Amino acid sequence: MEGYAEVRRFSEVRYDPLTGHTSRILDFPVRELKRPDLTGLIESSRPLCPFCPEVVEKVTPKFHPDLASSGRYARGEALCVPNAFPYDENGAVTVMSHRHFVGLDEFTPAMMADAFACCIDYLEDVRSKQPDMVYQSLNWNYMPQAGGSIVHPHLQIAASSTATNYYSAAIPALSRYHSDSGEDFWPDLVEEERRRGERLIASSRLLSWVVAFAPMGIFDVVGILHGAQAPGDLRGELLQDMVTGVLKVLRYIDSLNMASLNMSVYFHLDDDLFTPHLRICPRVNIPPFETSQINYMGMLHNETLTIMKPEDICTGIRQLW
Ligand SMILES: [Zn+2]
User: Fold this and answer.
1) 3-class SS at 207?
2) How many domains does the chain have?
3) pLDDT > 80? residue 41
4) Residue-wise pLDDT tens digits, 287-321
5) What gap in Å lies between CA 241 and CA 257, rounded to an integer?
6) Ligand 1 centre and the CA of 97: distance in Å?
7) What is the distance in A from the centroid of ligand 1 to the CA of 81?
8) Residue 123's closest CA among 43, 24, 229, 238?
9) How far apart are the C-alpha atoms of 83 and 86, rounded to whole Å?
10) Measured in angstroms, how far is the CA atom of residue 46 from the centroid of ligand 1?
11) C or N terminus of the chain, fewer CB within 10 Å?
């Protein structure tokens, strides 16, 4: 394009400071995304929706009395029911609202707090009856582009005796870090990010927010729940702080015209080195052909590729924090 003049492109390979997992930050111009029109999707999915209030109690299952002390769990508009197609011992979903569609800028603190609290009621119940279900997580596929098969907003809850690959990488790495340095990884990470000043969004006694140095997605916002060890600790001030932070991240994602995301809140019970934490990654399709962001690199090399620099994302989020 420039008469074969020699040019240089600088792409980075970054190592996750805990697991060593690599991510690549590509030198490619970031173009502004066009806000997707979701009207057709919202309307066409409405008649088939199992989570709308007219049908949810008729078409969703109930927990078995041997496994849970309640058939369903409710908080405000939130309703936790078994996942009809589970992929671990205690798969459940929490319908977050009576509304079929809630835009990223429309979630309220009460709606979000009720949804999380409802999941936690269930997880605490599982813990009391099945103590070996130590891998517990709250997860969110927001909209089909992020793997959500139902538009109506809902969280996915897992309480399993089997680790996912995420846990299998993080747990031994945390223990290695502890035996090498004698310190805990999470406070050290926050301290190092504070010292460098490039990716720390905010930090308090209960909760710190950083943009991941080596992201798992286009970008990756991590909330570290210093004030918690188990799901049951996610109440009161800590829950409110987490909800406030999550809503700010949602607003930031919305401000970039991105309309879908994945979120996970991870717990590993009875493990002092595993501070519960959450990650939020937006999902995008790449214009003009709605190209999937997951190509062979993510699919077959388990490698993240992004064009967004974590430090630029941190600058953007701080402006609305
Ligand atoms: Zn619905």
Assistant:
1) coil
2) 1
3) yes
4) 888 889 999 999 999 999 999 999 999 999 999 99
5) 25
6) 9
7) 15
8) 229
9) 5
10) 6
11) N
